[in-house]
């Protein structure tokens, strides 16, 4: 099974592209950080990302979702909203240590067990719309974007840019690459 990563800075439009791909019949694996944040905020914690254990929680949910997706029937490509490399970038961006479980996951990726080498990198839209889970300025998102690109390069991935533009064009660009890889 071929697993592709769709990544980029917060607010870049990944979720909209994923929803479009899902509507087009592609298997999509959801990202974990937003859901961990939403759960912890619902439990009364205003900024769960400030705890170093946040990285471990994100990774654990991310790996569970990947395992569930691997068990699904069908051999078509899967599009993953983020990967352990993104979790590594998040740890670096937030100034948290890289926990042992994340180091292990990254070692597995380096050994070639994981995702396709080419990563769809959704470029920023020129602004960030804040949400309860996304409390980042546009300037911070640009720095986070650089951290992400550097992390993917460090772990041997090539970022395929998905330029800013209308959703239909962005989704079509990703679909075209997925179709060419089949």
Automatic annotation (TrEMBL):
Record InterPro entries: NadR/Ttd14_AAA_dom (IPR038727), P-loop_NTPase (IPR027417)
Source superkingdom: Bacteria
Gene3D superfamilies assigned: P-loop containing nucleotide triphosphate hydrolases
Domain NadR/Ttd14 AAA intervals: 3-170
Protein name: AAA family ATPase
Organism of derivation: Actinomadura luzonensis
